[in-house]
């Protein structure tokens, strides 16, 4: 089972969401950015490293949310989410097709990867 961390990056009441490219698994679906846990690193180190690599963005972990175990047809993963803050809205798009800052109220409008849906729902409950 893959262990993957993802970041719900907040900045001035906006949330950063990313659309997977056509060449990635789960093409064109939306997700919170992140990546695979490497041997010897903590989940917090993983998410900070992945966001630095994928987006050239510095983040700080604010709090963890509930991990999600999801079984797709060809692989299974444990998705470990973190609410994070950032100092700047600046990012570089290196892997994704599209990246946008979304209003919290619009988060359910995206076509999310299935594993991300419970995370979106938990996050929105926390915001109310």
TrEMBL record:
This is 8-oxo-dGTP diphosphatase. It catalyses: 8-oxo-dGTP + H2O = 8-oxo-dGMP + diphosphate + H(+); 8-oxo-GTP + H2O = 8-oxo-GMP + diphosphate + H(+). GO terms for molecular function: 8-oxo-7,8-dihydrodeoxyguanosine triphosphate pyrophosphatase activity; 8-oxo-7,8-dihydroguanosine triphosphate pyrophosphatase activity; 8-oxo-dGDP phosphatase activity; 8-oxo-GDP phosphatase activity; metal ion binding. Its cofactor is Mg(2+). Belongs to the Nudix hydrolase family. Residues 1-126 form the Nudix hydrolase domain. Coiled coil: none annotated. Keywords: DNA damage, DNA repair, DNA replication, Hydrolase, Magnesium, Metal-binding, Mutator protein. SUPFAM superfamilies: Nudix. Its EC number is 3.6.1.55. One of its GO terms (biological process) is DNA repair.
